[in-house]
Amino acid sequence: MKKTLAINSSESSKLDRKTIERNRRVHMKSLCHQLSSLVPPNLKPSKSKLMLGQQDQLDLAARYIKHMTERIEKLKRQKEQAMSSNQSNDYRKMLNKNVNTKLPIFELRDLGSCIQVMLVSGLNKTFMLYEVISVLEEEGAEVVNASFSTIGDKTFYVVHAQVKISRVGVETTRVCERLQELITPLEIWPEDG
């Protein structure tokens, strides 16, 4: 009798494992189908081709996820640029109200892998925009966007750059010093001698 119970219990444990494995496979198949259904139909191959196998569906979903991740990052960068543009517009309004502000005005923002340079100068500026871009590039940054606008007797420059080599980075204090030397009028410099 004990032998019969032992055989029955081993057979039932085999059945339980088979049932568990079958349920797991059904569940995984359901999840794969659900993932595949999230991929837009225009990215799936046409119906004239054979039905995609499960591995092909997973590969397609992985490519779609990667594409969407890159798109999200691109939209985040555009949002940051738009936000910084709005901040610079607020900055311009503030400068137009405060006429006694000494020019040139220089601000550098370190945003991690990105750098934003904002300059405000009068019409008698001592630097050119390409010189600012050269300093940034010599210090290891790649200029992504540069713009300027003139309002009244003031010129506003906004330069966006990102680090060329993320491991090395950019020494922002050195960039700041070099740009300060570039934009400061010569008559303000102390005389040697």
Automatic annotation (TrEMBL):
<dbReference type="InterPro" id="IPR011598">
    <property type="entry name" value="bHLH_dom"/>
</dbReference>
<dbReference type="GO" id="GO:0046983">
    <property type="term" value="F:protein dimerization activity"/>
</dbReference>
<keyword id="KW-0804">Transcription</keyword>
<keyword id="KW-0539">Nucleus</keyword>
<protein>
    <recommendedName>
        <fullName>BHLH domain-containing protein</fullName>
    </recommendedName>
</protein>
<keyword id="KW-0805">Transcription regulation</keyword>
<dbReference type="GO" id="GO:0090575">
    <property type="term" value="C:RNA polymerase II transcription regulator complex"/>
</dbReference>
<dbReference type="InterPro" id="IPR015660">
    <property type="entry name" value="MASH1/Ascl1a-like"/>
</dbReference>
<feature type="domain" description="BHLH">
    <location>
        <begin position="12"/>
        <end position="68"/>
    </location>
</feature>
<dbReference type="GO" id="GO:0000981">
    <property type="term" value="F:DNA-binding transcription factor activity, RNA polymerase II-specific"/>
</dbReference>
<dbReference type="Pfam" id="PF00010">
    <property type="entry name" value="HLH"/>
</dbReference>
<dbReference type="InterPro" id="IPR036638">
    <property type="entry name" value="HLH_DNA-bd_sf"/>
</dbReference>
<dbReference type="GO" id="GO:0000977">
    <property type="term" value="F:RNA polymerase II transcription regulatory region sequence-specific DNA binding"/>
</dbReference>
<keyword id="KW-0175">Coiled coil</keyword>
<feature type="coiled-coil region">
    <location>
        <begin position="58"/>
        <end position="85"/>
    </location>
</feature>
